[in-house]
Amino acid sequence: MADVSAESAAGVLGVSRSQLSSIEQGLRAVSEERLRTLAIHCGVTDETYVDSLATLAYPPERGWWEAYRGAIPSGLLDVAELEWHATRLRTVQTVHLPGLLHQGAYARAVFGSVIPALAASEVELRVAQRMQRRQVLEGDNAREYEGYVHEAALRMQFGGRRATREQLEHLCEVSEWDNITLRVLSVEAGAFPGAGHAMLYAEGAVRRLDTVQLDSAHGPEFTHTEPQLAKYRFHLDWMDQHALSVDASRDYIHAIARQL
After folding, report:
1. What is the DSSP letter of 2?
2. Strands 88-93 vs 199-203: parallel, antiparallel or unpaired
3. What are phi and psi of 93, to 5 degrees?
4. What is the pTM of this model?
5. Which of 16, 97, 165, 240 has the highest CB neighbour number within 10 Å of its CB?
């Protein structure tokens, strides 16, 4: 984007500096017309990029996650929206199994371990929302999903032995789907990058819309600057080089499930 000052951008849009700041933070809506006007003013010539921004700002229909607005943390809704608009999803999991592939009992145990403890009704709302997130992996518009799971996450017994076994068996089942690739990083691989953080790399319609989401104790964190994105792409490339093959990973998961 061209080197355009905040004053200049605000003037083009006919808003104040504070209003522009609210738009940039997602606190204030901007019309599609203003968005396209700003793109022209900033010298953006990538029509696919501008069209994608317009779609994000004004989707053709209300997102299903909006039904949970005000009932669960907005960060969880942001993750669902990010997945919905992504063209491809790549994840690294080191403690929990991939959220999009959770079964109810496993998800319930994960949310049940939150500190401070949640009321049972709040846990059930979060479980229901997580189950609905899975629709991005199904149907005619199923997203391509590539998940790297550390062996430690496979052995963590959230919900007990039975729930964990059923969850692992489910992972083996969905790993057979054409759009899902699951690979295991065994403990024998030794040290690995990422400091143990769970990571989601969501690819957008164009590279400039790629976003990384990281888990934290206070909720999801998002980053989209190119230096950070490049760092996480290298992270995923490292996983690709060191994880077990797809077939070996499936056998590995089966073996762990049989031990439970």
Report:
1. -
2. antiparallel
3. -125, 130
4. 0.83
5. 97
